[in-house]
Design goal:
By secondary structure, this protein is mainly beta. It has one helix and ten strands. The radius of gyration is 22 Å and the shape is elongated.
Amino acid sequence: MKRLVVTLALTAVLAGIASTVQAQIPAPKPAPEVKKLDYLAGTWKMEGEAKPGPMGPGGKMIMTEENAWMDGGFFLVAHLKFEGAGMGNGSGISFMGYDPDQKTYTYDEFNSMGEAEHSEGTIDGDTWTWNSNEKMGVQTMKGRYTMKVLTPTTYNFKFELSPDGTTWNTVMDGKATKVK
């Protein structure tokens, strides 16, 4: 019985200390760079063309993204739907954020084709550039997705692949428009 009383008293003291320490730690805040992702919040319709190549015969493609901030404001979550040449029809989910330690934007996508994509991004003026490593069978290629902001509600996009990081081939390109 004495052991139970000591255990309960010790638990109460430790719980009090833990709550005091927790109350003193301020809630984390997103890095200021995260706010630049706010441009992409909302619903976007993308229309473009997949080029003939290793990903298929090419042709018209359509995608819709519904982007909303996750609670806390650290990540922008996108729900994707796509249809068209090369990709077929499918869906995905992605998370965009900013890594203050690496000083780079991050993009992680998981889609209905079984792909898990990771890219790191930078902004230069009105141009976003996302770089990735793309597995094509046994070969790994460099991927580059570029977004050129045209207006507050439109941007052009282009996805390119390169076997060596110097010679780039366009795989798809098009235009995105924010839906009201």
